[in-house]
């Protein structure tokens, strides 16, 4: 499954780069990668790190989630990730569909988030 995701993300990266009129060399320079490494990402032969994916989304002018659109189950997973209202005395425990995540205490005056933004 993960290989299919790498191929899907890489394909969307390539198509977006081409749509924006950038060569592999231009995007590789902007992302501080070699052309060979970018090519491996675009073919799905290598997995992009979160930092490279974020930089690519910024350079190409798309949201980070754009690269995952069209994956089976992606849209459903986003809807299921909406968190419940804070529970517990300190207000920093959030309920997720199949688990509970414990977040660190909020900074003074900071309102804890009520939903997970993807």
How is this structure best described in words?
- By secondary structure, the protein is mostly helical.
- The protein has 2 domains: 73 residues, lambda repressor-like DNA-binding domains (434 Repressor (Amino-terminal Domain), Orthogonal Bundle); 38 residues, no CATH class.
- The protein contains 5 helices and 2 strands; from the N terminus they run αααααββ.
- A hairpin with a 2-residue loop joins strand 1 and strand 2.
- The radius of gyration is 18 Å and the shape is globular.
Outline of the structure:
The chain has 118 residues and is mostly helical.
As for the number of domains, it is: 2
Order of helices and strands, N to C?
A: HHHHHEE
The fold-level CATH name of the largest domain is: 434 Repressor (Amino-terminal Domain)
What would CATH call the class of the largest domain? Mainly Alpha
Major sheet characteristics: 2 strands, antiparallel
The number of helical elements comes to 5
Strand content: 5-15%
Strand line-up in the sheet with most strands: 1-2
Low-confidence stretches: 78-90, 92-107, 110-118
What are the key terms here?
single chain, 118 residues, mainly alpha, 434 Repressor (Amino-terminal Domain), disordered C terminus
Question: Can you lay out the helices and strands and say which pair or pack?
Answer:
Layout: H1 2-19, H2 24-31, H3 35-43, H4 50-60, H5 74-80, E1 93-96, E2 99-102
Antiparallel strand pairs: 1-2
Helix pairs in contact: 1-3, 2-3
């Amino acid at each position: 499954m993960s290989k299919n995701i790498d191929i899907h993300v890489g394909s969307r990266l390539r198509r977006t780069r081409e749509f924006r009129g950038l060569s592999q060399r231009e995007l590789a320079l902007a992302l501080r990668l070699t052309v060979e490494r970018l090519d491996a990402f675009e073919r799905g032969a290598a997995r992009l790190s979160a930092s490279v994916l974020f930089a690519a989304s910024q350079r190409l002018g798309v949201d980070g989630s754009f690269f995952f659109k069209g994956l089976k189950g992606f849209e459903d997973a986003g809807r299921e990730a909406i968190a419940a209202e804070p529970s517990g005395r300190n207000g920093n425990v959030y309920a997720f569909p199949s688990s509970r995540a414990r977040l660190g205490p909020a900074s003074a005056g900071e309102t804890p988030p009520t939903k997970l933004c993807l």
